Model the fold of this input.
Amino acid sequence: MAFITSKEMFAKALESDYAVGAFNVNNMEIVQGIVDAAMAEKAPLILQVSAGARDYAKPAYLRKLVEAAMEDSGLDIVLHLDHGADFEICKKCVDDGFTSVMIDGSKHEFEKNIALTKQVVEYAHAHGVVVEAELGTLAGVEDAVSVSERDAKFTNPEQAAEFVAKTGVDSLAIAIGTSHGAYKFKGDPYLDFERLAAIEKLIPDTPLVLHGASTVLREFVDMCNQYGGNIPGAQGVPEDMIRQAVKHHVCKVNIDTDLRLAMTAAIRKVLVENPAEFDPRKYLGPGRTAIKEMVQHKIRNVLNASNKF
Done:
């Protein structure tokens, strides 16, 4: 088992109708639940660390947790920086042993995004690390990412081709209608599949990434609300839309909100039904189990619906 890059994973995914799940991690139970699910399903796996996770758990702890998970499971795992804000944080993560980094220059003008991404690509590639970049902007809020729907911009296919050619980036996160957080759509869910197909046609050899791809599974929203939560109207990306996107060279699907909802629902249930309970193991354990079961569902029914692993 070892830290690996996503290069071979994505090459295989491009040839088939499946995607690799990229799951955000914040603590031990989340890591364990995700890795146990991947092990059970024999699935390729990316564990990713956001700015919020780095602030909360500290990079050294997260890296050691993933190392422990590899030792326990025997899996090879991609350790990925999610939404790196600048060259400095990408460089630090490369130096700290991450095998994949995302530089998110989507808030910048096109040419500045190219220059920043190229700088990260040159440093990362010199150290054997792969790079994901983003073109177009997602609405919603997740950790340090906050963009108003009014300012959200879909990815321009022609710019995507130019961006990849000029930066040498390994994969590209695109904006086709998904958003961060639990409230992805106010009306009917919509993804721009015509735009996705145009991007795929112009850059057929580039693995595409879908951020903000949690389904916001109704069972967990309802359970949270049933046991004292207050998240009415939460709505995610329907699973059939994710499956359709996977057929158009979406090789990496980011999932975070569904992890949070699954764990929170399970913990709320335990604490409401057992108000005298104060042993963290008694509620974090069910939270871990909920994550494992949810991730297995994602792998079987969304990421690998065509059974191509």
In short: The radius of gyration is 18 Å. The longest helix spans residues 280-303. DSSP finds twelve helices and eleven strands in the chain.
